[in-house]
């Protein structure tokens, strides 16, 4: 069933804001849900319903907020519509959208799984775009809202041995910066979170924990989530790059020849000896 972009409702007086967080069963999504729970109601979504329900029970018990569980698979085309159909059925309002769900895959493009990479494009690009399209009209109607799209420092350069993943994150950066510009003055703030290597299940799933990049050190997912939370609570907008080292590396990339940047990216992706 196809439903129109979510219309929402005006905020009743005294109502807590509600954040929809994708990929909320682990990593940055889970840490951000824990940080937001004292002050926000939540809608958490991921594929693992049991983990989501356990998280909801724990957060509600600790903080007294309302945590709605909507399991969905955003690597499938129907996932975003299913989430917003359930949001509409429960008459919920999405004040903050956190597009956090995503995954990567390691290996030379000629050898990697096409099925996995098409799912990656669906999750990292198409579902993120679809969810944003569904949430935005109600935010514009209320003249208030926030969108946090999780990209990566990977999106600032080509990524040999993770070619598709790096390309998906380049899309997220470009898309987010563009709509942030379009929405200036609307009351809707848009943030693009670009972490570097982060200690989550992502590295294990992507089979890249032995790469030089990860061996150099990874930020904790809590530290990344804290940076995102500060930006949300201050209602900031634009690029957010947590970590001094990540900022420095991006400055170096901006003044380096493109072929050199790509070669360095390849070297960092290779397995450490």
In CATH, the topology is named Rossmann fold
Largest beta sheet: strand ordering: 3-2-1-4-5-6-9
Relative helix content: 40-55%
Q: Provide the CATH architecture.
A: 3-Layer(aba) Sandwich
Major beta-sheet overview: 7 strands, parallel
Which structural category fits the helices and strands? alpha/beta
* Apparent shape: globular
Q: Given the structure, what is the number of helices?
A: 10
Order of helices and strands: EHEHEHEHEHEEHHEHEHH
Number of strands: 9
Instruction: Give the count of structural domains.
Output: 1
Explain this structure:
- Helix 1 (27-36) links the parallel strand 1 (18-22) and strand 2.
- Helix content is 48%, strand content 13%.
- Mean pLDDT is 89; it is low at 1-11.
- The chain is an alpha/beta fold and 273 residues long.
- The strands form two sheets. The chain has a seven-stranded parallel β-sheet with strand order 3-2-1-4-5-6-9, with helices on both faces.
- The protein has ten helices and nine strands.
- The protein has helices spanning 27-36, 49-63, 79-89, 114-142, 163-182, 201-206, 212-215, 221-233, 244-254, 258-269; strands at 18-22, 41-45, 67-69, 96-99, 145-150, 188-193, 198-199, 219-220, 238-240.
- It is globular, with a radius of gyration of 18 Å.
- The termini are far apart.
- The chain has one domain (18-269): Rossmann fold (3-Layer(aba) Sandwich), CATH 3.40.50.
């Amino acid at each position: 069933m196809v439903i129109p972009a979510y219309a929402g409702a005006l905020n009743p007086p005294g109502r807590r804001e509600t954040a929809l967080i994708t990929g909320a069963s682990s990593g940055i999504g889970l840490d951000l849900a824990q940080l937001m729970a004292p002050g926000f109601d939540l809608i958490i979504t991921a594929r693992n319903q049991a983990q989501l329900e356990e998280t909801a029970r724990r957060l509600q018990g600790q903080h007294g907020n309302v945590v709605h569980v909507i399991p969905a698979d955003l690597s499938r085309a129907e996932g975003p519509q299913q989430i917003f159909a359930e949001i509409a059925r429960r008459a919920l309002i999405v004040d903050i959208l956190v597009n956090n769900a995503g995954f990567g895959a390691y290996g030379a493009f000629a050898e990697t799984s096409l099925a996995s990479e098409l799912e990656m494009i669906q999750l990292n690009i198409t579902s993120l775009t679809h969810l944003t399209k569904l949430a935005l009209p109600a935010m514009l109607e209320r003249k208030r809202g926030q969108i946090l799209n999780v990209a990566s420092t990977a999106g600032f350069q080509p990524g040999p041995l993770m070619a598709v993943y790096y390309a998906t994150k380049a899309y997220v950066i470009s898309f987010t910066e563009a709509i942030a510009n379009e929405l200036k003055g609307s009351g809707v703030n848009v943030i693009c979170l670009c972490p570097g290597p982060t200690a989550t299940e992502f590295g294990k799933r992507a089979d890249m924990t032995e790469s030089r990049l990860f061996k150099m050190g990874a930020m904790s997912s809590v530290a990344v989530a804290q940076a995102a939370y500060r930006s949300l609570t201050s209602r900031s907008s634009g690029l957010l790059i947590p970590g001094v080292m990540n900022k420095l590396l991006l400055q170096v990339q901006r003044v380096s020849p493109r072929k050199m940047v790509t070669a360095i990216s390849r070297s960092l992706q290779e397995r450490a000896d």
